[in-house]
Amino acid sequence: MNAREVIRVALRALARNKMRTLLTMLGIIIGVGAVICTVAIGQGASAQVQEQIKNLGTNMIVVFAGSVNSGGVRMGSQATKTLTADDARAIEQHTPTILAVSPGVGAAVQIVNGNQNWATRATGASAAFFEIRSWPVVEGSAFSERDVVEAADVCVIGKTVADQLFGEQDPVGQVIRVQRLPFRVIGLLATKGQNSFGQDQDDTLIVPYTTVQKKIAGISWVQTISASVDSQADIPLAQQQVAALLRERHHLRPTQGDDFIVRSPDELAQASAATSRILTLLLSSIASVSLLVGGIGIMNIMLVSVTERTREIGVRMAVGATESDVQRQFLSEALVLSSLGGLIGIVFGVAGSIVVSNVFHWKTIVSPASVVLAVLFSAAVGIFFGYYPARKAASLDPIEALRYE
Question: How many C-beta neighbours within 10 Å does residue 220 have?
Fold first, then answer.
């Protein structure tokens, strides 16, 4: 018999006991659906984290002020005062892989507009900050390097601050009070939403770093230096070059540790991606147990089918069917059984992903690779667990099979 005839006979045999066939496929349906749904949730979570990390800025490194050891007590990160704006300028001038640099200093502030007030964090930066963070100004404009040099009382605000202080009013051109100082709002930032740590990135006030140093925080050093790198491949080299330059500028001996920390959001992205892959693999492995249970169910039903159809097998072999014909027939029934279950499982898996996305507001991504893998795995389960019953049917003695009642 050709392949089409074999499949037709298999479908006819399975249709004899529709309820038993459906119950047998249930394990495969649940297994395939669960695998597709869990992989979709895992990939959606990974994509969401990657998008949030990307919002921090692409091809970027950040230098943080480091820890200081005082009398055996380590004071934690950003405790040193050795990181300066001159370091930022040196990084920009002497590191070939660096495109733009922005010193950074921050302080918690209370801002007021009329009878509205809001507690937020003032982030001091240079004019290059918006390019480094890939953060466009959608209304008004960003401050200039001249504003930085003059420590001007100007600011660019995030959407959350604008909503809290101005509501539906246009904030650009308005004057607000920041720690009792009047600041003119010259720009409104594009919405970025939460970062990977759940912090609202739009709850921010960006001002020239010199303004924060001289008028708000009263310090002469900087807490961070942000820098954009030419390409992602250059990030490790840029980190090494920046570290070597800062050690030289800070006159650190070989035996001394760094008084700064160099990090990149890409490191966080890679760690997050690795964690997501592990969790997705773990969830998929748990869901795959249903496929194995379904495979055992297929083997059980096929063994019952061999017993029920022993006389039929004897008749087939008596009229000329070979052992390979009988084996192929029963193996095709197991394959059809598992493949049908896999196709139905795909529908349930995709539907489950949509339900999870709409009800729980979790991002899900159904990838073609996961669908193909689930179908191939379900077919493999049918072949693996259907081989023994098919082999048993093919090894029956025709004479004994004809005598079977």
Answer: 11
